Amino acid sequence: MRQDQGEWREIKFHDYAAIFKIPGLYEHLFHDLLRCQSPAVVRRLLEEEVDREGGERTRLRVLDVGAGNGLMAEELSDWGVGFTVGVDILPEAAEAAHRDRAGVYKDYHVLDLAHLSPRERGALRESEFNVLTCVAALGFADIPPRAFREAYNSIVPGGWVAITLKEEFLQGDDRSGYCRLIRDLSGSGALEARTSRRYLHRLGARGEAYHYVAMTGKKVHDA
Ligand SMILES: C[S@@+](CC[C@H](N)C(=O)[O-])C[C@H]1O[C@@H](n2cnc3c(N)ncnc32)[C@H](O)[C@@H]1O
């Protein structure tokens, strides 16, 4: 939240750069004040699914998209995944992750997934990621569907997908493009959906509740 001419307004994408520059500010705003729970919710959901299938967490090679300053990677590291590579459009996010959570990422790329060069695309695919996480980054005009599709196509068939989406994005009148994308992924057989859980993502600037949906699934083929 931020005060503009006496009015509180929601944080927009470009505010993140300034927030990430100040150690602890992102955690204080979103997690202490606005009670964001998304990284912990997604970790639990993914953990349950991987355990249910008898998968080995140490074999997980995670691509964490919209990685920010590394809160999701910290959850994954505590759980004991093989490794996590972060991607974010903001250099300030990468700097904050290195500064505040050194070691939780094996690597961190500052990339605009909506406009990848063939070389960048090839480099991501070479890593053969078998998990895609995208947490608290599909909600407030953050990552566009086109960029998400690139991320989806960067993991191997059989890989896990674990994301959170603003619940309005799943409704018929949604204009973000996500409702259609998720429907296409399932309808075309590109994604085998597993779990879906509605939860309180965080509070808004005026104390209102923002509900998101955390989803897991298995990629079958490219989108
Ligand atoms: C609310 S933060 C979430 C950070 C982290 N996943 C977490 O759970 O704390 C959203 C992040 O998405 C990133 N982002 C927005 N648009 C993006 C894009 N097109 N490509 C990559 N990252 C993007 C922002 O820079 C920001 O770091």
From TrEMBL:
Q: For this UniProt entry, which residues form the secretion signal?
A: none
What InterPro entries does the database record attribute to this sequence? SAM-dependent_MTases_sf
Q: Which Pfam families match?
A: Methyltransf_23 (PF13489)
**Which controlled-vocabulary keywords does the entry list?**
Methyltransferase, S-adenosyl-L-methionine, Transferase
Name of this protein: Methyltransferase
